[in-house]
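Sample log: S41A family C-terminal processing peptidase-3.
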Amino acid sequence: MSKKRFYVLLAVLLIVTNVFTFFIANTVSVALPGGKVIVSREDYRLLNQYKKLFEVGKILESRYVDKVNPSTLLEGALKGMAGSLQDPYTVYMNKKEFAEFMTQTTGTYGGIGIIVAVDQEDHIVVVSPIKNTPGERAGIKSGDIILEVNGKKVSGKNLDEAVSMMRGPKGTQVTLTIMRDGKTFTKTITREIIKLETVFDYMLPDKIGYIKITLFDQSTSSDFKKALERLKKDGMKGLIIDLRDNPGGLLEECVNIADMLLPKGVIVTTKGRAESQEFYSKGTGLGMPLVVLVNKGSASASEILAGAIKDRKAGVLVGTTTFGKGLVQTVVNFGDGTGLKYTIARYYTPNGTDIQGKGIEPNYVVELPKDYTLKDTPDLKGDTQLIKAYEIIKSEIK
């Protein structure tokens, strides 16, 4: 073998060895005789960073006055870690909590049928009661502040616990202490099985279509598509979408509906430290006059849809300023029945507006009469916001 070839092979061998060593040192844990382990640099960094956590767990498990369940310590540590961020939408959920959380977007559950969020003062505030549920029938309204559940004080710091307490088997009761307009009162409500029907459609006079979306769950966009097709088949000339008291839901469902209504372009942008995304519409747009009804109970995904329609000038908004929840959550399923819900990004309307804590102001600000309660079906006699939307559509129909 020539010296040149020898040195080439030696260089290749050194390179391969170094790469292999780097890979082992940075990504692989290797067991050695005597119980010792070589760990990656990242694992070593994490072990040092959380060393005190392990030490506290070890002390409590072995020396606390009463016997301690290690899994209880672990759950407490995980909940504390998520809670330390002071973000009511970031929470570690045990098996019971995670199962209850998942029912909100996948089917039915026992409860009173209200959607809640946290305001700037850390109050638990009702975003909206769900249509045809005990909460709605009991007279709970958007904007009500829940102070106590079954006599226990609640706030944004224990949002998920409060939600869990409000849920329960059909036929059982829960008592809420509520503050509205500075006055405090209690309501005892009997729980029912909450079935989530999210899309309702009607044809108004002059062939003006009306679709109410109460929530964005896993079937909302397909149900909306069917409703839209029914109205078009019946000769619809303009469309009113009612997002009042809609607390939001699944981003994907909202984007799918926006794709049916907007011409090609941006629907929403999400920006976070870990990832950022832009969502686009790919269709040709609705092709007819469009008005969207909103109020202070319109939140999250509702604001994404309303903001996209307003910014893209695909239609106009009528009503009052929306809730102002511009945070995006994602869920990690650990595969053992537990999960982590955490805020991963903020979302921005097509014009780059961050609506967190501010909401979206409609093109036409219209208040409802002071003592008026929204009806289950469209009311063209007393619903001033719907009347205004109807007049706008009628004036634009050719």
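Observation: The two ends are 89 Å apart (CA to CA).
Observation: The chain has two domains: 108-194, 196-396.
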